[in-house]
Design brief:
Number of helices: 13
Strand content: 15-25%
Structural class: alpha/beta
CATH architecture of the largest domain: 3-Layer(aba) Sandwich
Number of domains: 2
Helix content: 25-40%
CATH topology of the largest domain: Rossmann fold
Bound molecules: flavin mononucleotide
Distance between the termini: 33 Å
Oligomer: single chain
Number of strands: 21
Shape: elongated
CATH class of the largest domain: Alpha Beta
């Protein structure tokens, strides 16, 4: 999550009666941490699962549970609360509440303010698998989508009742991601983005190998930002322990050759290729099949190396290449090496990391190299920087070609 990613956004967070109410405590924390203001409204059933006191403490605002609440000066909370909101999010959304929404019912504060709203409505269903599969629920969800509501999830897996299947609420972090994505401008709508991220691992024997200090954070942040900008995102990741960004298709690889092969399999479909991975330039010519042991004579092992394929240059050389973007981490003279590398790899845009110490850090400072010159971007956390870079890439994209 970027600092203050939802700054200035005001959400009505409507809670209905389900076990997943416990997840909303964490969701509220994530939303407020991202700068959003959150007005919680609970159905009577929701207050049986978590108290308004907890939700007030976490949101920093008094909670509304009744339409007869006199705290709103004109006594019309059902109108006033939604007028201030950028969106209403119903989480968890019970079977009952989905049915009420689908039929335009208005018999309590939350349902009435949904009917009276003039802002987008997002629902995050949470229920037992049979309740979800019930034809009436499915009819209601179809109706809600047709009415223009955003239905986030549900997830699949073990449920509070002990059964396993579809219907459980998205985790708080995934719900947060879906909400943040909803608010992002869709500057890459309809575009397909292929990215590489992380280090590669070149084996020397079954237990040892050569890798590098790339954490994958910048590439994963770019994948997330591209997804939020409306793109279909395919992320080819080297060995990193990072969570896959919400809505992103991830393919794990180890070696540079595997990364190259994965990219080549998918590049024909891509409008944009962003090579963020720190790909090993060389690999051991012959990795040992067995673990190399110390010998009595203490003979040191020797390796010869061969060059790995240059993924970025190969992509750029294709007859119909996607808009190809490279990354460079240099240990000095970035201004000289960055432009030289861009021209040599023949890509329209190369992003140079300022300073060699960005590996693993949460923020970064970069220079954009392109034929028309170099532009330095201000230092920012990697999520914020990723959004800026996606906007910079979107600005430079050619119109979609009919032959691609
Ligand atoms: C322990 C317990 C757990 C429940 N969990 C859910 C649930 O996860 N999803 C759901 O749709 N209903 C669940 N229900 C049923 C709802 O609470 C019930 O339908 C209620 O009328 C919903 O009211 P509301 O939509 O006004 O909040 C549960 C009920 C109980 C007693």
């Amino acid at each position: 999550m970027a600092t203050a990613e939802l700054a200035g956004k005001h959400l009505v967070l409507g809670m209905t009666g389900g076990i997943a109410c416990y997840k909303i405590a964490e969701l509220t924390r994530l939303l407020t941490k991202a700068g959003a203001t959150v007005q919680v409204v609970m159905t009577e059933a929701a207050t049986q699962f978590i108290t308004p006191v907890t939700m007030q403490a976490l949101s920093g605002r008094p909670v509304y549970t009744s339409q007869w609440d006199g705290r709103v000066p004109n006594n019309m909370a059902h109108i006033d609360l939604s007028r201030e909101a950028d969106a209403i999010v119903i989480a968890p959304a019970s079977t009952d509440f989905l049915a009420k929404l689908a039929h335009g019912m208005a018999d309590d504060l939350l349902s009435t303010l949904c009917v009276a709203r003039d802002c987008p409505l997002l629902v995050v269903p949470a229920m037992n698998r049979q309740m979800w599969q019930n034809p009436a629920t499915q009819r209601n969800v179809t109706q809600l989508r047709a009415d223009g509501l955003q239905v986030l999830g549900p997830d699949s897996g073990p449920q509070a009742c002990g059964e396993v299947g579809d219907g459980r609420m998205l985790e708080a972090a995934a719900t947060y991601e879906a909400i943040a994505s909803f608010f992002s401008p869709k500057i890459l709508a309809g575009r397909r983005v292929l990215l590489t991220a992380g280090p590669t691992f070149e084996p020397l024997d079954p237990v040892r190998g050569i890798t590098n200090r790339s954490s994958g954070k910048m590439g994963f942040a770019l994948a997330r930002a591209a997804q939020q900008a409306g793109a279909e995102v395919h992320l080819v990741a080297g060995p990193v322990a990072l969570e896959t960004p919400w809505g992103v298709f991830r393919e794990d690889v180890q070696t540079a050759q595997q990364m190259h092969d994965a990219v080549m399999r998918s590049v024909a479909d891509a409008d944009i290729f962003i090579g963020v991975a720190a790909v090993a330039d060389w690999r051991a010519d012959h990795a040992s099949e067995h673990k190399i042991k110390k010998t009595a004579e203490r003979t040191l092992p020797t390796f010869t190396f061969v060059e790995n394929p240059d993924i970025l240059a190969t992509v750029a050389k294709l007859p119909h290449p996607p808009f190809a973007v490279g990354f460079a981490a240099e240990s000095g003279d970035l201004e000289v090496h960055g432009e030289e590398k861009r021209a040599r790899k023949n890509v329209p845009l190369l992003i140079g990391n300022l300073g060699p110490l960005t590996f693993g850090l949460d923020d970064n400072e970069v220079i954009l190299f392109e034929a028309s010159g170099a532009t330095k971007l201000p230092r920012a956390d990697k999520q914020t920087l990723a959004r800026t870079l996606i906007a910079e890439i979107a600005k430079r994209l050619p119109e979609p070609s009919p032959i691609r």
